[in-house]
Specification:
- The complex is a heterodimer of chains A (345) and B (114).
- Chain A is of the alpha+beta class and 345 residues long.
- The relative contact order of chain A is 0.08.
- In chain A, helix 7 (114-124) links the parallel strand 6 (108-109) and strand 7.
- Chain A contains 14 helices and 14 strands.
- Chain A has helices spanning 17-22, 25-32, 35-38, 52-62, 81-89, 97-100, 114-124, 144-170, 172-175, 199-210, 215-235, 265-268, 278-282, 290-297, and strands at 6-8, 14-16, 46-47, 66-71, 74-80, 108-109, 128-132, 138-143, 183-189, 240-246, 250-257, 300-306, 310-318, 336-341.
- Chain A folds into two domains: 18-148, CBS-domain; 176-341, Histidine kinase-like ATPase, C-terminal domain (Heat Shock Protein 90, 2-Layer Sandwich), CATH 3.30.565.
- Helix content of chain A is 39%, strand content 23%.
- In chain A, the strands form four sheets. In chain A, strands 9-10-11-13-12-14 form a six-stranded antiparallel beta sheet, with helices on one face. A three-stranded mixed beta sheet of chain A has the order 3-4-5. Chain A has a three-stranded mixed beta sheet with strand order 6-7-8.
- Chain A is rod-shaped.
- With 114 residues, chain B is of the alpha/beta class.
- Chain B has one domain: 3-Layer(aba) Sandwich (Udp-n-acetylmuramoylalanyl-d-glutamate--2,6- Diaminopimelate Ligase, Chain: A, domain 1).
- A five-stranded mixed beta sheet of chain B has the order 1-5-4-3-2, covered by helices on one side.
- The longest helix of chain B has 10 residues, at 99-108.
- Chain B is globular and about 35 Å long.
- The mean pLDDT of chain B is 92.
- The chains are: A alpha+beta (345), B alpha/beta (114).
- Chain A binds chain B through residues 194-195, 197-199, 201-202, 205, 219, 222-223, 226-227, 230, 283-285, 287-290, 292-293, 296, and chain B through 33-37, 39-40, 44, 50, 52, 54-60, 62-65, 80, 88.
């Protein structure tokens, strides 16, 4: 959606994309939460024929500032602290409640959003409102305190859900029982697609962080994949595949393409050597440092290539130092290859 | 020296969504127009000075978690680059001055590789 498009929010408020982004979760909750979810149901009521003295007693013992006045199920008025003070000033505590109560009752419906209650609080300068159902029957009371509590509980719930999600991702390998668990991520890289260059590496880095990887490891993987990804974008005929296999003890990253292949791998490994065109160099690529950067970031790198067949770059990062054993790389007669092991961390 | 002071003193134009730059303390600077050099040389949370302004600088800055990219010589990234930078929380700054002048001014201001 573009910023010129607007949508009409609740209550006719015009919400543009720009300010929709600024709406906080708390404001959202004020619309989402319904009065009945936060109101107090256990309420005290009085009848019109009771004496004001009874109001004094109730307000004092319940620590509240007002009471609904009922007749049977129906609410006929409200008696507040202010009304009580008026009766006390007149030394009239024996008077019936009907003499001092306000018969005009501002009430709110059970199904209204709490934002409605907040608006009524401000508009009528009250701190509590009786809550009625669709038949006008008194169901409870709502105060600012009830709203604050309701919002906090909802936020707490949100927070716990997010915590659970994070915990699940970061404990994926612990929670799944198998002889060998691995997670495989695959990305298809298109040749010459500079616009999406770096997307696979960013996504992989984010996934690793989500899985609870150490940020340093995630960064090393990100840089290595970025260089491999850009190589596929710049040099391949039909793009390639990036495959990342994550295991508790190591991350295996593979960049595989089907051509054109590297003519001389030893030359390609030299710092500053590049076959990139002038046009691509102008964009800042083709520094002849990509493979060296990869080598610097991974524990083990194997590069195999055959002209006309393609290139396979394999990169490994070991997650626990004691497991960074040396492996014997295979070396085919018809293929040229380069293998290196990182000797510093 | 925080990023807000750097923006003010060098009169940089903020191209991406602003936030509280005074909370950011870039402790390192790097200059190159070759992306792989930046990948190799720039450090976390540093500043990067370049005259490159195309979309791939965003990926580099995001992967390295750079504090900001200062695009020199008045080169202006296109709107999709700015959108991607906002999306990835990368700050893009712009100046009409060449990289050499900006690096020199930063050095004069006492900005060093710490």
């Amino acid at each position: 959606m573009t910023s010129t498009q607007e949508q009409h929010g609740r209550k006719g408020r015009v919400v543009t994309d720009q300010n929709a982004k600024d709406i906080t979760r708390v404001e959202e909750l004020a619309y989402d939460l319904k009065v009945q979810e936060v109101m107090s149901r256990d309420i005290k009521v009085v009848t019109a024929d009771m004496q004001m003295e009874h109001v004094l007693e109730q307000l004092r013992t319940e620590h509240i500032s007002g009471l609904p006045v009922v007749e049977g199920d129906e609410m006929i008025g409200i008696i507040s602290l202010e009304d009580l003070i008026r009766s006390m000033c007149a030394a009239d505590l024996q008077a019936p409640i009907s003499k001092y109560m306000s018969p005009e009752v501002i009430a709110i419906n059970t199904y209204d959003p709490v934002v409605e209650a907040l608006e009524l609080f401000t508009k009528f300068r009250v701190g509590r409102l009786p809550v009625v159902d669709e038949n006008g029957k008194l169901q409870g009371m709502i105060t600012k305190g009830d709203i604050t509590r309701g919002v906090l509980i909802a936020l707490q719930k949100d927070y716990q859900e997010e915590e659970v999600r994070r915990y699940r991702a970061s404990h994926l390998f612990e929670d799944i029982n198998s002889d060998r668990t691995s997670l495989i991520l695959r990305y298809r890289i298109k040749a010459q697609d500079f616009i999406h260059g770096g997307n696979a590496s960013s996504n992989i880095k984010r996934a690793l962080l989500r899985l609870g990887a150490n940020p340093q490891i995630a960064r090393r993987c990100g840089i290595a994949i970025y260089e491999a990804e850009m190589n596929q974008i710049i040099h391949t005929t039909d793009g390639g595949i990036i495959r990342v296999e994550i295991e508790p003890h190591r991350i295996l990253m593979q960049a595989i393409d089907e051509g054109p292949g590297i003519d001389n791998i030893n030359l390609a490994m030299q710092v500053g050597f590049s076959t990139a065109t002038e046009e691509i160099r102008e964009l800042g690529f083709g520094a002849g440092m990509g493979l060296n950067n990869i080598q610097r970031c991974v524990d083990k790198m194997i590069l195999e290539s055959e002209i006309g067949k393609g290139t396979k770059l394999e990169m490994k990062i070991y997650l626990q130092p004691e497991e960074s054993f040396r492996e014997v790389g295979h070396f085919d007669e018809d293929k040229t290859s380069h293998e290196s092991t990182r000797n510093h961390r | 020296m925080n990023l807000q002071e750097i923006i003010d003193k060098l009169e940089l134009t903020v191209l991406t969504e602003p936030y509280d730059f005074s909370q950011v303390d870039p402790s390192f600077g790097y200059t190159s127009d070759l992306l792989s050099c930046v990948m190799a040389g720039a450090r976390n949370h540093g500043l990067w000075l370049t005259l490159q302004s195309h979309i791939n600088i965003v990926a580099v800055a995001a992967l390295l978690e750079l504090s900001a990219v200062i695009i020199t010589e008045g080169a202006l990234p296109d709107s999709s680059t700015i959108a991607k930078a906002n999306d990835q929380s990368v700050t893009l700054l712009s100046t009409p001055l060449p990289t050499f002048a900006i690096a020199g001014k930063l050095w004069e201001m006492g900005f060093r590789d710490s």
